[in-house]
Amino acid sequence: MIEQVKGTSYSASSLLGASSFLYMNQNDLHGKKDESENSSVMHKKSWWRISFASPKVPDPPPVCPAKGIFYCVIYLRPGDYHRIHSPADWQVLVRRHFSGELFPVHERGRRTIKNLYVENERVVLEGQWTEGLMALAAIGAATIGSIELFIEPELRTNRPNRKLLHSEPPKERIYEPEGVGVMLKKGEELAAFNMGSTVVLVFQAPSHKSSKDGRLSEFNFCIDRGDKIRVGEALGRWSST
């Protein structure tokens, strides 16, 4: 579950879609991994506000028993930096566009509107990185329905014929070549909002892994709830145990 506010949560599957790779075994995720070196990340004089949690037991059941599902919710205020950069080297395999509402995502909205991020219009990118699943959801808000996707500039959001029934499936596109998709480098510009809104990052990572010297390392966030971060600042690292 992903926490919206204290005491109110929503499932990752409802955010990402019923066909999310969360339900697949890792062996079903086909595609060549990107082994090129990480590119340098541009540093901007802007801030993102962060809320996050790192459950050790995924929901739904884990893609791989040795790994967990982590998530990070990034709230962008109107005066913040509104462009989205790739969090890692990864392959974007599929895009899902969920038409929906455009409720405000400020603190009052998060506290009063149940399943706010699931109700709002959003664009979900899903694929894989070296550690498994990677998914990024760009969520619209009041007066911020236009989500610009640089890897698919023809995509149009915030259309007048938004869906009326919640049972209507999202519009999905599988990027070619199938199984490889679009290769993104860490720090590469990916998408943008016209004003502030919210980005939810969901990814798979091993709770523990062996380093070259044989010691175990554990993934941990290196930021705290409510922190402000600069573009290019690390969200988490593996630390030796």
Automatic annotation (TrEMBL):
Pfam families: PS_Dcarbxylase. Its cofactor is pyruvate. Keywords: Decarboxylase, Lipid biosynthesis, Lipid metabolism, Lyase, Phospholipid biosynthesis, Phospholipid metabolism, Pyruvate. Its EC number is 4.1.1.65. The keyword Nucleotide-binding does not apply. Pathway: Lipid metabolism; Phospholipid metabolism; phosphatidylethanolamine biosynthesis. One of its GO terms (biological process) is phosphatidylethanolamine biosynthetic process. The keyword Lyase applies. GO terms for molecular function: phosphatidylserine decarboxylase activity. One of its GO terms (cellular component) is mitochondrion. PANTHER family: PHOSPHATIDYLSERINE DECARBOXYLASE (PTHR10067), PHOSPHATIDYLSERINE DECARBOXYLASE PROENZYME, MITOCHONDRIAL (PTHR10067:SF6). NCBIfam families: PS_decarb. This is phosphatidylserine decarboxylase.
